[in-house]
Amino acid sequence: MGAGAEERNSSLSPQVLQEIAKVEAEIDRIEAETIERLAAPPDNEIQQIELLGKLMLYDKDLSVNRNEACAFCHMPETGFTGPVSELNRTTGAYPGSVRTRFSDRKPQSHAYAPLSPVLHYNPGQGDLVGGNFWDMRATGRRLGNPAAEQAQGPPTNPVEMGLPDIACAVYRVSQRPYRALFESVWGPQSFAVAWPGDVEQLCNRPGPPAAADPLPVHLSPIDRGRVGATFDQLAQSIAGYEASAEVTSFTSKFDAVLAKKTQFTPQEQQGYDLFRGKARCNECHRDGGPGEDPLFTDFTASNIGTPANPRLPYYGQDRPDAWGYVANPLGSSFVDGGVGTFLSNGHLLSQPSAVDARWLKLGSDNQARMRVPTLRNVDKRPDPAFVKAYGHNGYFTSLKQIVHFYNTRDVLPRCQSHDPGEGTTCWPAPESTANMNTSKVGRLALSDAEEDALVLFMQTLTDGFMH
């Protein structure tokens, strides 16, 4: 495991470690069950791609320390977002394969993500539309699929799966039991690569690579090209699974109501009416229109004025770790610039997609803006006591709290973090006021009962109601 094994779990409480062990056991169970399907794989190519994608999403070997699958941040029981209640409650962010490194943001759901359009600029709206990630940096411009480009971020992100080179992901896949299925779908050339003798050693060392050697797995130009193509196919397979009916299923009570198979309760109906009217949710979290899937996002970005989340371990990652990596050189003065940071200089951690040079001038107008997430499965949880985190940084820990914020952000007085009234009678200042949304958020004049009705409506967006 290399340097720092003894410190890897130092910042995780016993309760978090216990929950992580439970999630890992469930990942192993799902992976084993999925590997069994290789004995008689489907004969349809689409289903083969979905099976491949699922196998890779649940494969811990695709992380540097072989301990973190993609699914660690995206489990079905929570609507394909963070599955550790205590992490959601105490930080909002998740540790990477190197357990002392944490991301600066809350994991998003990957359900419905493949339905996002390729990132584009709409001059009529004056808005960028589409892409994946909170900062839209998985644009989809290269592969034609934002979800596929999103899948290319975590494997080499130092605070996530931590591999030093995309070649390591391809090499690790070539050692797995689903290699033959991959080759039958994408071709026998996929892993026809002359791997250097020290590939194992190189791939066991956490990224980022040294600036002087950005591609530490040294390959011939043709092998490097082959690795790039195979990495694209790996990502397209993952996006294929995310688009499958198993993940993106449209099976909520809301869908059943649309299909006239059931009805909302009076309070859910009141919440839906508020959602479309007085609460103005539907202006960004669109519930669809003629010929439009109700995806509960408009694929744009907005700064709703979320306060900084002082619980993020990322603020403390301002000193070199055991491998000499500094995740956050800015320390406590870090401000998440969202889409603006991506457009201006690329996301510092990982940038699976290139920035279109014509968009550089949009940087300041997008500073601090975050992509509008889908509300589908926004309340999906394994049990009522399970805590989910909301907002790009996980600042909010209940739906009621974030609804109250939308309602009262500009009405209640400002307070410091940890004030006894925080979140009920006062709010901390926004992390950034740049481009803050003041037209749709902040003073909605909703009563407490109306806030509750909105929460009840959003609970009808949980998949699994119809089978």
Automatic annotation (TrEMBL):
Q: Does the keyword Metal-binding apply?
A: yes
The superkingdom listed in its UniProt entry is Bacteria
This protein's GO CC annotations: cell envelope
Q: Which Pfam families match?
A: CCP_MauG (PF03150)
One example GO MF annotation: metal ion binding
Keywords on record:
Heme, Iron, Metal-binding, Oxidoreductase, Signal
The UniProt record lists the Cytochrome c domain at 266-462
User: Major location, coarse class?
Assistant: other
By its UniProt entry, which InterPro entries does this protein fall under?
Answer: Cyt_c-like_dom, Cyt_c-like_dom_sf, Cytochrome_c_Peroxidase/MauG, Di-haem_cyt_c_peroxidsae
Respond yes or no to whether keyword DNA repair is given for this record: no
User: Where is the protein situated, by its record's location annotation?
Assistant: Cell envelope
The protein depicted here goes by the name Cytochrome c domain-containing protein
Per the UniProt entry, what species is this protein from, by scientific name? Bradyrhizobium betae
